[in-house]
Design brief:
With 299 residues, the protein is an alpha/beta fold. It has one domain: SGNH hydrolase (Rossmann fold). It is built from 10 helices and 9 strands. Strands 4-1-5-6-9 form a 5-stranded parallel beta sheet, with helices on both faces. Helix 4 crosses helix 10 and helix 7 packs across helix 8. The longest helix has 20 residues.
């Protein structure tokens, strides 16, 4: 099988061999799949219904990658490989890392001259500049800290991901070996980084979320406000440095973040979507991202 004979030298340059999980056997066209998507829960989706794939990776049946595959008429065919995984990250944490996802996709013969589009959406679950592992750690130790708040010094106190370390250079360096690998084995593919939805208002220091539909505001949320903005800017800058396309989801979501009149991201225990992951696209948000990716890349 092609996946077993290829050398993942580019991937191994960025991560230890021990970080690579065993490849999962699969079968698809040797020409490659038309659409291949990598990502964390922002891409895998959190809205019901959710099912695990053969790796045990949970994915929503209405996630934006699956809706994009529907749009292209390739869902449930070898021309679509959805390698996204809730809990995934670029190269930190215990979930399926980017290199793991690429190796699994390769076992499905996802890469070849017929591969047309490869999409990546990552960064929220990674550690940036300190020991804080993912934005849920930031929420727990920073946003929900009513005594200390979540001011900008929280990053130096290891209570929030460090916006200052979340740079285009750092993002590009962390994904470059895998991008090089994909470019080599899918030479005709258009590769794009997909940005993140609007998690906070794109001005001011407030963090707002909803619980059972009621707004809850943390007025001292500058550290996480800065991180969300820096991560999106880092992905955009990395795309430019690596000669990739960038899909500006945050721009498309402007005015539709948490606590807005028409939110496209989930709160906590929303009455119409009780199990949707907080600060993840809701059902409307997944539709918006799918459509916006298609329009941006002329799919």
């Amino acid at each position: 099988m092609k996946a077993l004979t290829r050398t993942l030298a580019a991937v191994a340059a960025a991560v230890t061999v021990g970080a690579l999980t065993p490849a999962v056997a699969g079968a698809a066209s040797e020409q490659g799949s038309r659409l291949v998507v990598f990502g964390d829960s922002q891409a895998a989706g959190t809205n019901l219904m959710m099912t695990p794939d053969e790796r045990g990776c949970w994915q929503s049946e209405t996630s934006w990658p699956k809706q994009l595959a529907d749009r292209l008429g390739v869902r449930n065919t070898p021309d679509f490989v959805d390698a996204t995984c809730s809990g995934g990250a670029i190269d930190t944490g215990g979930g399926w890392l980017l290199c793991d996802q690429v190796r699994w996709a390769d076992s499905k013969n996802a890469f070849g001259p017929g591969t047309e589009t490869v999409l990546l959406q990552f960064g929220m679950n990674d550690s940036w500049g300190n020991g804080v592992q993912g934005y849920f750690d930031s929420i727990d130790s920073c946003i929900l800290n009513l005594i200390d708040g979540c001011e900008r010094e929280a990053a130096q106190q290891n209570r929030a991901q460090d916006a200052a370390a979340t740079t285009p250079e750092a993002f590009a360096q962390r994904i470059a070996p895998v991008v090089d690998y994909i470019k080599h084995y899918a030479p005709n593919a258009r590769i794009a980084l997909v940005g993140l939805p609007e998690m906070t208002p794109q001005r001011g220091d407030e963090i707002c979320g909803t619980i059972f539909g009621a707004p809850v505001v943390q007025p001292r949320g500058g550290a996480l406000v800065d991180f969300f903005a820096a991560l999106d800017d880092a992905a955009r800058g990395a795309a430019d440095r690596l000669d990739l396309d960038f899909v500006d989801v945050r721009g498309a979501f402007d005015g539709h973040g948490p606590c807005t009149a028409q939110p496209w991201v989930n709160g906590i225990f929303e009455l119409d979507n009780a199990f949707g992951g907080p600060l993840h696209p809701n059902r409307v948000g997944d539709v918006v991202i799918s459509d916006y990716v298609a329009r941006t890349l002329s799919l």
